[in-house]
């Protein structure tokens, strides 16, 4: 008999030796190392105030025969805290993406479920292969005044948590930075630099949706920026 047992950090954990009686003579091992009998209550194994280091394989053997009766894989962790969710459109007007992470690790597997609602319509957020905690939405109508509502729920064997964002389409538009930025000296003019750049390659239609660029500069010895 073998299974996985999830417990919270700081909990008191009781493990039974499968279907063995409480007064049966047994021996327990953790990751192949004998466990002191002071941790036993009859055939039950009692772990007080468990910590992350106590995760591992626990095995119970019958009396003097050393017949393996039961195994459990103990995984110690925490319920998820409220996840951090961010949505952004860097390729307007094609769509937007949402990405997420947990503020602190749980040390056990988590499952994320995201729902995107536009008005009364539920939309599919297509998961990206990389990065893994990201999915993207394709716009179905441009210049919509209907808000988007994105809810992210995280679940693990010890609990669940969620967060919700509500926003207008235009409020999350944020292009990526310009690419191929080059600064070159101007011949015969030591006080001048020629700076060139290109639109971010992720921006799909700069003709219909032109980008505005801001440039600032300063000599390294000064703290003040100059703006162009």
TrEMBL record:
This is Ciliary neurotrophic factor receptor subunit alpha. One of its GO terms (biological process) is positive regulation of cell population proliferation. Keywords: Cell membrane, Disulfide bond, Glycoprotein, GPI-anchor, Immunoglobulin domain, Lipoprotein, Membrane, Receptor, Repeat, Signal. Belongs to the type I cytokine receptor family. Type 3 subfamily. The gene is Cntfr. It is a lipid-anchor; GPI-anchor. It comes from Tricholaema leucomelas. InterPro entries: FN3_dom, FN3_IL27B_N, FN3_sf, Hematopoietin_rcpt_L_F3_CS, Ig-like_dom, Ig-like_dom_sf, Ig-like_fold, Ig_sub2. Its main location: membrane. Residues 177-228 form the Fibronectin type-III domain.
């Amino acid at each position: 008999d073998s299974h996985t047992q999830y417990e919270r950090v700081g909990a008191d954990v009781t493990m039974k030796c499968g279907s063995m009686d409480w007064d049966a003579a047994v021996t327990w091992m953790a990751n192949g190392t004998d466990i002191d009998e002071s941790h036993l209550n009859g055939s039950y194994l009692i772990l007080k105030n468990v910590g992350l280091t106590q995760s591992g394989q626990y095995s119970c053997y019958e009396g003097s025969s050393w017949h393996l009766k039961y195994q459990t894989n103990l995984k110690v962790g925490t319920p998820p805290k409220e996840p951090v969710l961010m949505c952004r459109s860097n390729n307007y007007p094609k769509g937007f993406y949402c990405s997420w992470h947990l503020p602190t690790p749980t040390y056990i597997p988590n499952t994320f479920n995201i729902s995107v609602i536009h008005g009364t319509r539920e939309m599919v957020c297509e998961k990206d292969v990389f990065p893994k905690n990201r999915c993207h939405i394709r716009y179905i109508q441009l210049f919509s005044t209907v808000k988007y509502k994105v809810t992210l729920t995280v679940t693990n064997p010890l609990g669940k948590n969620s967060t919700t964002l509500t926003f207008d389409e235009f409020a999350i538009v944020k292009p990526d930075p310009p690419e191929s930025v080059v600064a070159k000296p101007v011949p015969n003019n030591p006080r001048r630099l020629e700076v060139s750049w290109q639109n971010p390659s992720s921006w799909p239609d700069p003709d219909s949706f032109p980008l505005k660029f801001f440039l600032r500069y300063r000599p390294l010895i000064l703290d003040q920026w100059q703006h162009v």
